[in-house]
Amino acid sequence: IPTIKIKFLETPIYCLLSFLWLITHRSKKDTIVHLHTIGCGIILPLLKFVGYKVVTTHHGPDYVRVKWNFIERAVLKLCEHFVVSLSDEVLCIATWVKQYVEQKYNRAVVCTPNGLFLRARTMTKNYLKKFLLEQYRYFLSVGNLVPEKGFLDIVLSFNKLEKNNGWKLVLIVLPEYKDKKYTAKVLNEAKRNKDIVIIESSDQEMLNELFSNAGTFISASSYESAPTYLITAIGYNIPTIATSIEANIVVGKEYPYYYPQGNIFALNYYMEKVVYNELKFNTFNSQLLRGYDWEEISSIIEESYKNLFTQW
Hints:
Distance between the termini: 29 Å
Radius of gyration: 21 Å
CATH architecture of the largest domain: 3-Layer(aba) Sandwich
Low-confidence stretches: none
Largest sheet: 6 strands, parallel
CATH topology of the largest domain: Rossmann fold
Structural class: alpha/beta
């Protein structure tokens, strides 16, 4: 279903168009509607008024993101209220989100994290050659080019290195979302250093090779609901540096080195220790990846659907 790519209007218009399609194509007697993120909660009153059963997956309090203004945050908080109070079943994608919702709204929530399709390390070097990278001698970070991902902090910290000892910084920018002003800041700072490589792509073959050969992964996020690429890096057994936000700590536990979000001096300190081989990382523990198997997660979601079908 087409929609318009305008911040704040994209989700409401898409939800409304989806609702119109739904009521003209599917009977409420044999249909469960599954919504994702609290923003889609804007359509919940209409869905319940018509009589549909609704499952909503809560991806975290999205209104804390820096991109929203006061009015947009207020609307998202209202949407969250709709999600928790009107949904027949509420799921969430992280244990910290589950705790947050249950404490705030006193409602039981089922945790269904985003699963992982971990691929075996590849021995190919095609993309290393293409981007002039040396195996295990580059920092890697992946995400959308928006303020809460902290790419500017990573670039500033890398540029503060007195010597990088042959290390490079690779930022893989996913093409789905960009903040124009923030993008300009990152690109302006990055062009000062020839050892910073910015790649705009979500190609899985490329991601697999660059994860397989990275020296250290960095997550500089100020907000994450479920830090997918941090989990991915742990799955590849890559040494990891991450901000000490709750979502990262819940996922990474003792594996990464943590630093205060926004503190580029602390990040620079760790990066400097890495390039001089003075940082000893913790041993990988496979238990960190428990709970991210898609088959287990899908069976939990399926059980939620079955429970709702028995209520008809």
